[in-house]
Amino acid sequence: MSGDFLVVLAVALPFVGAGLIWLTDWNANLREATTLTTAGALIWVVLSILDLVLTGAAPATGAFEIVPGLAIALSVEPLGMLFACVASALWIVNSIYSIGYMRGNKEPRQTIFYVCFALAIASTIGIAFSANLFTLFLFYEILTLSTYPLVTHKANADAVVGGRVYLMMLLGTSTVLFLPAIVATAFIAGTLDFTPGGILAGKAEGPVIAVLLALYMFGIGKAALMPFHRWLPAAMVAPTPVSALLHAVAVVKAGVFTAMKVVVYIFGIDLLATSGQSTWLIWVAAASLLIGSLVALTKDNLKARLAYSTVSQLAYVVLGAALANVWGIVGGSMHIGMHAVGKITLFFCAGAIYTAAHKTEVSELTGLGRTMPFTFAAFLIGALSIIGLPPFGGLWGKWYLTLGALDAGQLTIVAILMISSLLNIAYLLPIPFKAFFGTAAGGPPRGGIKEAPLPCLIAIGITSAACVLLFFYPGPVLELLQLIDTGKGDAP
After folding, report:
1. How does pLDDT run across 163-193, given as a tens digit for each residue?
2. Residue 114 in contact with residue 35, Cβ under 8 Å?
3. Residue 89: Cβ within 10 Å count
4. Which tens digit of pLDDT belongs to each residue from 300-315?
5. Are the CB atoms for 393 and 341 separated by under 8 Å?
6. Residue 333 lies in a domain
7. Number of domains observed in the structure of the chain
8. pLDDT band for position 160 (cuts 50, 70, 90)
């Protein structure tokens, strides 16, 4: 099969899978087998495209013009390839986990859950392989709409309120800020195509660049850059597999991926570096990075603590883009993948704790490690990866971001990255420590080992192992990122 056909197939497969899942509603086993088969087929297609990209190919489809100047088109470049690999690989793992979680908690409306999940993955792959801003914006909005039913899945009062915040903030930022930025870009540059080196060089300068950058960075609400972050903790009313989707597989990663792609292929890092117009963004990202961690320290609800952790961790990627140098781009892009694996592990563990022990608050977890040793050992691994300690993959994104900050002469940012890691330790490590070594008020727990259902544990085991493997084998990720054409001709 040609690379061009594979690109179309990668986007189409989850859409087709969603329809088949709907048709198999009558049999739960068949429905879930359809989900896993579709997810398995998608990862095979994405890895086939990856093989082509690593040999220097750039698969693309012809443009389907809606109106003159606005076309739907797909093309593959290394940054989008990385995002597609993350989304497709974690979809199948999340699907395995979802089977155990949804059945274990006897969740209602499971068919619509799997259907919307597939639609969300389809739009995520569309975002990853978009050849221009118009195509990306269409899939970006489809992602918002397809995940809304997932956020409101429980259909209670909290879910309705959380879903309303989710929808209003994401649609509001995209229509009021993101869309005007795209229109202005088309007017200034005469094109919306993603182009190495950017499309604004020589066509915009000074305040125009600063205003456009602000419209993009705050308009891409899925990146959860403060103060447009409240939808993320509000969406924690959703079932845990949805939280994992939001934080690791699709939504927030679509946000920071879009921010990174706009910086590299619309502005161009040369334009931002020479104009100095991204300096303000460095400090906004740094503030989000620290404030998110400080708020996480105050949260007793486990999912809320992890949500604010995500707000902080997303700022690392925006920071890498704002540094406007090659190492910053590599570090921020690598953090997309490394954080995804670590954070999905933590959310999987939170869901396992809820399923097996019906605990949701950090203060309730003391001593629980004795009855759920596998889950809390995995939580420790995921936490250490998020912190960025060896031998776990989360180290590499922070390492290259530090190199980017040094290259930009931003020594204060290096210090902020170190402080942030200390804050990560403060809000994450006490959880497994108290679970294993603390004693609850009622004395040691009784009843022996009681873990979540086996599918949950399988998924947790896979992502925990990936946290370790990505430390020892970061080469394939770095090899892919070295192929990013920033227009500077100085890949690391």
Report:
1. 888 889 999 999 999 999 999 999 998 889 9
2. yes
3. 22
4. 999 889 989 999 999 9
5. yes
6. yes
7. 1
8. confident
Closest Cα to residue 128, out of 33, 255, 270, 216? 255
Asked if residue 486 belongs to a domain, the reply is no
Confidence (pLDDT) at 212 = 93
Amino acid at 294: L
In a domain, 492, yes or no: no
Range of the domain at 214: 3-481
Domain annotation covers residue 204: yes
- Report which of residues 278 and 128 the model is more confident about: 128
